[in-house]
Write a structure and sequence with these properties.
By secondary structure, the chain is α/β, with parallel strands linked by helices. The chain has 9 helices and 18 strands. It has 3 domains: 155 residues, Distorted Sandwich (Spo0b-associated Gtp-binding Protein, Chain: A), CATH 2.70.210; 170 residues, P-loop containing nucleotide triphosphate hydrolases (Rossmann fold, 3-Layer(aba) Sandwich), CATH 3.40.50; 67 residues, GMP Synthetase, Chain A, domain 3 (2-Layer Sandwich). The strands form 4 sheets. It has a 6-stranded mixed sheet with strand order 10-11-9-12-13-14, sandwiched between helices. The chain has a 5-stranded mixed sheet with strand order 3-1-8-5-6, with no helix packed on it. A hairpin with a 5-residue loop joins β15 and β16. The longest helix has 14 residues. About 5% of the residues have low confidence. Keywords: Cytoplasm, GTP-binding, Hydrolase, Magnesium, Metal-binding, Nucleotide-binding. Its EC number is 3.6.5.-. It is found in: Cytoplasm.
């Protein structure tokens, strides 16, 4: 089964919590704080695995989470960092943000790897909160949460030559003749329901990879038929081998078919008409009058295409000549990366612990947001020393200034989640 697109959920590891600990030794009656920091959460890293050819594994496992960092310990022992989660993917995989559809990374070379999500930082132990005036802090910092995201993995085949043409023109037959690939072949439309790759290794030519792209029909660039699912695979190819059925046995006009396919390439988002094309007139064995070849060739040359060959993929006539022409053409075409527009790339938001302040119907100033959750997790509101730290953080983070701007006065109430207290300047 060929799977070339998959949606998965990924989450990096949370950071470990800082420790609350004090030095305890036989002859040390008042040891200072010695709580260590928490460990870092694991990153989510995608790496290319050349042995993989499909995204089938992601059909059965759609949730991937990295480990949590270890909590800090006593004696200033730091928690152990969690191991990164390495996710192998096939060469040619594009990672996209599912919600926006924009590109996070394009893994198109063998050694590519990309950190998609960073693990959360470990929280500080109470050692880090000791000051000359606060020598025994009995609070610590929680670990930072990891990141999470729904992503789409999209596989684009990496081939030197892409076989192009309407369904049932003989692409699969040609692939089976020139490589060891064994595509399904039958005399009906859309026999090929998934791309097939083969390596052409014939005497006297440099080997190259050829891909049989499932039949593209008129309207493919707009989602008609199977074409829109597979046009992405042509993006990677350096050379297009455009197969045309010149036998006319299905009552189609070969020239019109050729023009329609190129129109679909032009409409596709990357305008694939910039790829060099070799035109192949196939099914000579079924052509009663070969004089039509000259007529077809003249019309195609009039459209600006000069490299035109006649073959019979079924009998092998002319096939070696075409493969030799492809190999020679590839020597003149540099290997280039797919060019994307800046707007195509996903720019993640820098998530900070933010807060918002509003006044409810009872006149209470409500402070909410991720900053509030983290702060309340770190302190014990019933502990006086914790409360002093709590108020200091509110001042350092600008919360108190924001409240003053909103007109808070002595005696007004402030609420953070379920914790409510009276304000006095």
């Amino acid at each position: 089964m060929f799977i070339d697109i998959a949606d998965i959920f990924i989450k990096s590891g949370d950071g470990g919590d800082g420790a609350i600990s004090f030095r305890r030794e036989k002859y040390v009656s008042h040891g200072g704080p010695d709580g260590g920091d928490g460990g870092r959460g694991g990153d989510i890293i995608f790496v290319v695995d050349p042995s993989m050819t499909t995204l089938l594994n992601f059909k059965y496992k759609r949730k991937h989470e990295a480990g949590r960092g270890e909590n800090g310990g006593k004696n200033k022992c730091y928690g152990k960092d969690a191991e990164d989660l390495i996710i192998p993917v096939p060469l040619g995989t594009v990672i996209k943000d599912k919600e926006s559809g924009k590109i996070i990374s394009d893994l198109s070379t063998v050694d590519d790897k990309y950190i998609v999500l960073k693990g959360g930082k470990g929280g500080k132990g109470n050692t880090k909160f000791a000051t000359p005036t606060r020598q025994a802090p009995d609070f610590a910092e929680p670990g930072m949460p990891g990141e999470e995201r729904h992503v789409t993995l999209e596989l684009k085949l990496l081939a030197d030559v892409g076989l192009l043409g309407f369904p049932n023109v003989g692409k699969s037959t040609l692939l089976s003749k020139v490589s060891k690939a064994q595509p399904k072949i039958a005399n009906y439309h859309f026999t090929t329901l998934e791309p097939n790759l083969g390596v052409v290794a014939m005497p006297g030519i440099n080997p190259f990879v050829i891909a049989d792209i499932p039949g593209i029909i008129e309207g493919a660039s707009e989602g008609v038929g199977l074409g829109i699912q597979f046009l992405r695979h042509i993006e990677r190819t350096r050379l297009l081998l455009h197969i045309v059925d010149v036998s006319g046995i299905e009552g189609r006009n070969p020239v019109e078919d050729f023009i329609k396919i190129n129109e679909e390439l032009k409409k596709y988002k990357l305008d694939l008409t910039d790829r060099p094309q070799i035109v192949v007139m196939n099914k000579l064995d079924l052509l009663y009058d070969r004089s039509y070849l000259d007529e077809f060739k003249k019309e195609i040359e009039g459209l600006g295409y000069s490299e035109i060959y006649a073959i019979s993929a079924a009998t092998g006539e002319g096939v070696a000549e075409v493969m030799k022409a492809c190999a020679e053409k590839l020597q003149t075409i540099p290997v280039t990366e797919t060019i994307y527009d800046v707007e195509d790339f996903f720019i993640p938001e820098i998530k900070q612990f933010t807060y918002d302040v509003e006044i409810d119907e009872d006149g209470v100033f409500v402070v909410s947001g991720s900053f509030v959750d983290r702060l309340l997790y770190a302190v014990d509101i019933h502990n006086p020393s914790h409360l002093r730290y709590f108020h200091k953080v509110l001042g350092n983070k600008g919360v108190l200034d924001r409240l003053k701007e909103m007109g808070i006065e002595d005696g007004d109430f402030i609420r953070l989640n379920d914790f409510e207290f009276e304000y006095y300047a």
